[in-house]
Write a structure and sequence with these properties.
By secondary structure, this protein is mainly alpha-helical. The chain is 69% helix and 0% strand. The protein has one domain. The chain contains four helices and no strands.
Length: 88
């Protein structure tokens, strides 16, 4: 991505990007949990962010895996984790 002068913009630091994506995910999950009027954005937020680019997909996966304990020790949980990974 270039600025108006044509010079490339430096990327956001990964720590800042992680913080932004954590906020977006938490707000959307909260809205799904408590709001009677859930928008399509909240329902598709994980898929949308994960499809943006590989780095965003890895950050989203890194945030949600420990948050929801995805990839547990039981075979059923590991099978679900494989499905989640393939659907991203």
């Amino acid at each position: 991505m270039s600025s108006a002068t044509g010079a490339p913009r430096p990327p956001l630091p990964s720590e800042l990007l992680h913080k932004i994506l954590t906020g977006v995910l938490s707000e959307s999950i909260h809205a799904i949990s408590v709001s009677p009027n859930v928008t399509q954005w909240e329902m598709d937020v994980v898929w949308t962010l994960a499809q943006t680019c590989f780095m965003w997909k890895e950050i989203v996966k890194g945030i949600l895996t420990p948050a929801f304990a995805i990839g547990g020790e039981f075979p059923e949980e590991q099978a679900e984790y494989r499905f989640v990974r393939l659907s991203c």
